[in-house]
User: Fold this.
Amino acid sequence: MLKVTKFGGSSMADAGQYRKVRDIILSDPERKVVVVSAAGKRHSKDHKITDLLYLCHAHTQYGVPCDPVYELITSRYLEIREKLGIAVDLEEDFAELKQRLDAKQVTQDEMASRGEYFSAKLMAAFLGFKFVDAAEWVFFNIDGTVNKKKSYAALKEKMTGEGIVTPGFYGVMPNGSIRTFSRGGSDITGSLAAAALDAGVYENWTDVSGILMADPRIVENPQPISEITYDELRELAYAGANVLHEGAIFPVREKDIPLNIRNTNEPSAPGTMIKKHFETESDPDRIITGITGKKDFSIITIFKRGLTSEVGILRKILSVLERYNISVEFVPNGIDNVSLVIPTATIAPHLYTFMADLQQEVNPDNVVVQDQISIVTAVGHQMAFRPGVSGKIFAALGQADINIRMINQGPDELNIIFGVENKDFANAIRVLYNSFIK
Ligand code: ASP
Assistant:
């Protein structure tokens, strides 16, 4: 079984981390494909190489010399090379890049991509694996989507039996120019590589022992999730949990390849396994898989007598929103009212004109706006069709004196979503965690 591994920035931050990566790779001969990020932070006050690359590029765009920043970037890689005693020439690449940068011939995307490029060159030499440039196999279409067929075929062709290291985060446009994914996009490269090679598993190595059941800034020492389905992960990620790049899920999911989140600093921990579904429940009592949420929503409630029976009124309301290019998160409704739940940051700049348009086109009896609302989401496939779960959730919140402003449950019963005031946000998450997970 072939395993595709991806190591994030913290796993590539210094020579010590490189050694850990090598131990992980060499301990399992099935780990033949390694995707790497740029060097990340070594400690909380440190800089990510990718941030420095963007900074350096911005300097030159404004005609400010970026030599000190460039020096910070190159010295990080040279230090790793020296400490590990790797024989690979980086100086030529550094000089060529700097010269083209000064001549304003390097695009922002190309500059940002070099962190991954240098990481992969070093790691390939350190492991004794073949370096395969992402520019030789990640092909974008003109609209910025990935040409999977062409990319997969190209990577397959590169596999000649030996192990390979390839940079994450970027690929090439049809005209040959470098293009990056959005930030954190090395996760996508790893997923594409796993799908291309029909890997048995895609291991995503990071600095936590799996996805946590709740935000550790809110809940003390939350437990890691051992198993989660792709659907659940999507719900959690959408609702605020920050684990993987969203785009990393689709390529592996399409091919039914499991994704395993692992910790480079604790390789013996099993991490979190993500699959389409699990044949048997390893823990049938685990009703809730994870709890997450986001703050700062507005609820705009539109009151109008007879609203529910007025044909087309929802369309009218939503088309006003559409005009302002605002998407709506939830639309809970009553008999004579309907509410729009929208992130405050997206509606606030347009609120007055939006209200004026609404007045004219919908003619409501009244409109009320409530700010400072948080949305909390409990996710768990085992909640489905099990009576009493929402009862337990709301009883626990009631006992903690937390008022619920809105309730929403999808018919697939994969989640229960509710709105509380911002001031109750953290407490609501803690109360749920303590009553369901602890
Ligand atoms: N180095 C890139 C970033 O910092 C991509 C990645 O690490 O996934 O966003």
In short: The first strand starts at residue 3 and ends at 7.
